[in-house]
Description:
A: mainly alpha, 2 strands
Amino acid sequence: MDGKREKPGFHIPLPAIGFLLPNFIGFLFFVMFPVILSLIMAFTNWTINPGVPLEYVGLRNFNDLLGMHSAIPAAAGHIYASYVSCVILLLAGLILYIWSYLREWEGVKIGGTVACILGLSIIITAFANHVNHGFVLAGIILLLAGIGVSISEKGSWKPGIGIIPSILLVVSISALWFLNKPMWDNFTPNDPRFWKFFYNTVYLMLGTPIGIFGSLALALLLNDRLPESALTKRAVMFLICAGCGFLSLVLGLGSGHGDLGLVIGIIWLIAGLGLAFNVIAYRTIYYLPSFTAGVAIMILWKALYNPQTGPINIGLSYLTGTAIDELPKWLSSFTWAKPSLIFMGTWVGIGGMNMLLYLAALSNVPQDLIDAAEVDGASRWQKFRHITIPQLAPTTFFICIMSVIGGLQGGLEQARVMTGGGPDGATTTLSYYLYNMAFQNLNMGYASAIAWIMFAIIFVATALNWRFGKELEVE
Amino acid sequence: MMNRFPWFKFGLMIVLGISICVPFIWMTSASFKHRAEVEEINLIPKKPTLDNYPVVLDMKPDPATGRFLGMKFWRWYFNSIFIAAAVTYLQVLTSCMAAYAFSRIQWKWRDRVFLLYLATMMIPGVVTMIPNFQIMVGLDFLNSYHGLILPAAFSTFGTFLMRQFMLSLPPALDEAAMIDGASHWQIFWEVIIPLARPGMIALAIMTFLGVYQSFFWPLIMLNIEDYFTMPVGMLLLDSTYGRQTEYIMAATVLNVVPLIILFCIFQKFLVKGLQLGGVKG
């Protein structure tokens, strides 16, 4: 638009080149070139070990990771084919399910009810037959999705094409149910660890919805300011609170209950900070864990979780009177390791960036919409449901995408610092597996193949998120 | 409109605040305890000691064994801060320059090149990590400062953030400067940079924090203790003296306190920057 006519050919003005060049060289050298090199590595047996000659191995790395092998291949071929097609059918059914809900197809609610029944029956049968957790989880997800669809205001009760996804789900799930045993009797994955660690990664991501809801709740709590008051009054109130805190500490120390005094003193102090700096004080406090998050915080939690010497177990044993050996061993117990990591992640992330993003979005909700709803006599819940939630949709969408991307890559630092991937691989995620492959086993080619599979999963998850998130935003 | 004071909400805020703080309180308390007392539940040490800090900082021998721990925390502090500062300086500079080329100069293929930048932001770090390590091995950059500084000095995210910020500045400004005969270089330094300062500060804090806390890249690049950064040093301390909780906690306090100070100083800018980078998506 600068009035000059652009010459044909590759003419780029000199200033643009000058300004871009430093960054662009770095971009080419540390981003573009590595991406291409990584793709090449994934198809070779690349290793740091100088003794092994470099070879092109084609798809062998990918086959080793994702493929299955069978003791009697000829007999089991059709089982394999039907199992895989059932899985594809299942995924298609799930995607179509979301699709039909968003498009408000007729019969969506009937479909939702069918999904409810299906989910419930899966859970019951799974418990009755002592089947693995995966089925229970799938059942719970189906149940929740079904309930969500059937009580929502979208769609209708009339029968229509909205039932199709439910039929697909019923067919594929019942087929999978029957094929499950023959399939895994005949086939073993080439790399069972990969699937196990993939499961771990997804399990650890269960913390993200908790974190997102928690962040939203905190943002709602901290959105309205406490009643304002004059500067002098605030200063006086802070001093009174600090004085009370100090007094309770001194009293506690004097009467031999020093810890109680300390805790009450800190409560007074926090209250005083709130009176002096309003909600800003709490935003700061809640944000602290995620600002300081890193190796130090992980080491702190490792000490907290320590089954013998950590304060969690000592406190629990003090409160409940059970012996320390009978309490959960947290990070060193197979059942508790993952929940412990999720809990720590929630503590770190709940007041972090997500809360700030929600606060920013809440402050952008137009006041006239709320006023108009108040004039119409809307209740608080109705205002929240029909004004706040739609206004927050873009932020939620952004947070979901970032959490999925982060979650699928996550778990490396925790595994390296806190658990060493154990006990028995319970906290090893895909990224820690990749790290071990690349830097312990020096099998760079295999590790690159893992990296590209992770990229593919992240890409698909983001694309789905994007596709359906955009539809929700339009609403 | 006068409302009653929301006691319930206020109470909830305080309860949540204290539950967020409890691990920090325990950490501080444990760092002032003697070995014998560290496994007890009390928060106020019966016999408080200041010795854990000098022992961790290698200024005093460990009273139990009479030997020094051999942890070079001063050196690691310096390494971490030096590397983080260098990366921050370079990254903010190159990002701003590239963002200027992407937002204030018209040129052919500009948006296509920018799209390429955006597309690479989707590629997870694990994909580029292994080949980058290979490049570093090839350049013989292991155990060096430049091996940690150079790859982090160019950021597509920083470019994206600064471009968004610069696009929000009115274009009339540089047109006016252009009519007065200013060169692009002058416009960049004297018009755009002063106006883009809030965005730059936000990017600088995020970069500094990210590099200061970065654990993985230093872990694979370094195996000589003199070049360790704080997080890698913490890992070494934890794996060597993991049973001595009071030392570990003293080191954790030493690690976290500078961050809390940094946070209190820059809190306002940080919130602004996060909103800037986030909501535009």
